[in-house]
Amino acid sequence: MSLLSSWNEKVLGLGPASRRLYFGAQTPKSNSVLLAYAAALLDDARSGESAAAGAQPTAPTLRQTLGDLLDDLKNTPEDLKSFVSEFTEKQPKILPGDTLTPHERVARHIRFEKADRVAVAPQLGFHIAHAGGIPVREFMTRGVKAARAARRAWDLYGGFDMLPYAFPAGYLFPFVPDSHTRFWNRWVLPDGDELPKLEEIPLLAGLQDVLDSGIMPLARTEGGHLLRELAGMSVQVALYAALTARLFPRPDLYYPYATAIINHPADLLSFWMGFEPFMMACATEPARMREACEAMAPGLVEAGSISARLMGSKNVLYGVSRVSGSYISRKMFDDLFAGTFKMQIEMLHAQGYTIAYHLDNNYDAMLDFFLELPRHSGFMHLDQTDLFKAKKVLHGHLCLMGNLHPGLAATGAPVAVEAACERLIKEVGAGGGFILSNACETPKNMPPDNLRAMKRAVDRWGWV
User: Fold this and answer.
1) pLDDT band at 6 (very low <50, low <70, confident <90, very high)
2) What share of the chain has pLDDT > 70, as a percent?
3) Nearest one of 184, 346, 212, 173 to 270, comparing CA atoms
4) Partners of 436 in the beta sheet?
5) Res 281: pLDDT
6) pLDDT recorded at residue 49
7) How confident is the model over 221-237, as pLDDT tens digits?
8) 8: containing domain
9) 4-13 — which CB contacts under 8 Å span 24+ positions?
10) Is the pLDDT of residue 159 over 60?
11) DSSP states of 53-79 as a string?
12) For 209-248, b where at least 16 C-beta lie within 10 A, e where not — what string?
């Protein structure tokens, strides 16, 4: 084994499972997964076959970036005062009666230990752009503006139990094949304040292709365009990280939602095949579907956890949406996907990770399955799942997070939001193990008064 290959495995965790994920039964050009991956991307860029006609640049120009930095300099004196104040703070108070740090509070809920109150941690997502006063396009592409918007949003609400780290540069991240990277999916980025859109254009002809050749043949550089965009956006990511470190100097006092993303293989296959062909394959090729998922699963854990390993973090997001009861029966879930689900979670748990189970859509029919997963292994962020039913099945086993309805959050009156939160707090929060949040993430257009109503509800009814 070469020195670089050894470093890949020992530092990044990339070993035989990653090699199989990317290259299937093929022999890559290098024993190093990273070098072989880079060589495959360069081959695609040189071929020009996937070039996008008239592709427009995503990354800001040098002039725009310098302008952002110069405009932001006026904030430096106030930033330094805030930095000193917050860096020396030993116990931030999200609500006046807090006796624990946000990190301590969430950690106790995950372990079902007594906390001072219900945790409140709406995942702000693209709402940061709205609350921070910038268009979505700038939030996605301009690191300085995105970091400043995150701080403005934080100050607008007085903070939560998790920090609003949400610069969505991951849509361009090339190595991890999740549903948010342009290297494996076609994203339509906004021109102004619209949300980005994912076009599900089928890339994968059949499941056997993944087993034979891995997923590298599906990766695309748009004739090298995306590689150039990656270089430009890497600068924006660095600027965002540097300014965020100054604006939020004590992240250790807040609970991190996640620092890495791992998907269930079925989610990716459904994107790459197209949803209808994917569902047809589930019905007509169940053994092949199960085999493909089992082949991909360990490599997705290895590759997906790279960012957490590099940051020294033990918090990962496990994202699943396409194997929910919204689309498939419980029998199909058990026959095709439950084993892979357990395999990936047990791998992560054995490595000491705390897992944010990000479960989009409805898992009512699968709730007892989660009793088979490691106890206190993380928190279940539920979207359309009945949170009250989940409490009856899972209380004491897995912490629950969620799930204010997005329609109510975006268009309801503050009094109605507060009433919905009151019920969640009193019924789901009783006995601990609950984090009040939105379903999936905060609607971009959620009125600030409705987010304040969530905190007000916790302050009124959330104390132990």
Assistant:
1) confident
2) 95
3) 184
4) 120, 402
5) 97
6) 60
7) 888 888 888 888 889 99
8) 1-47
9) 4/32, 4/34, 4/35, 5/30, 5/31, 5/32, 5/33, 8/32, 8/33, 8/34, 11/309, 12/306, 12/309, 12/310, 13/302, 13/305, 13/306, 13/309
10) yes
11) TTPPP-SPPHHHHHHHHHHHGGGHHHH
12) bbbeebbbbbbbbbbbbbbbbbebbeebbebbeebbebbb
Q: Is residue 4 part of a domain?
A: yes
Determine, yes or no, domain membership for 7. Answer: yes
- What are the two backbone dihedrals, phi and then psi, of residue 6, each rounded to the nearest 5 degrees? -65, -40
Domain assignment of residue 78, yes or no: no
Among the residue ranges 55-64, 107-116, 144-153, the one predicted with the least confidence is 55-64
Which residue in this structure is represented by tokens 């086993």?
397
* Cβ atoms 370, 398 nearer than 8 A: yes
Average pLDDT, the chain: 92
If one counts the domains in the chain, the total is 1
| Contact between 202 and 277 (Cβ < 8 Å) | yes
DSSP 176: S
Half-sphere exposure of 139 (CA within 13 A, CB side): 30
399-404 and 378-382 beta bridge pairing: parallel
- Give tens-digit pLDDT for 414-457: 999 999 999 999 999 999 999 999 999 999 999 999 999 999 99
Whether 367 maps to a domain, the answer reads no
Task: Report which residue type is found at 73.
Answer: L
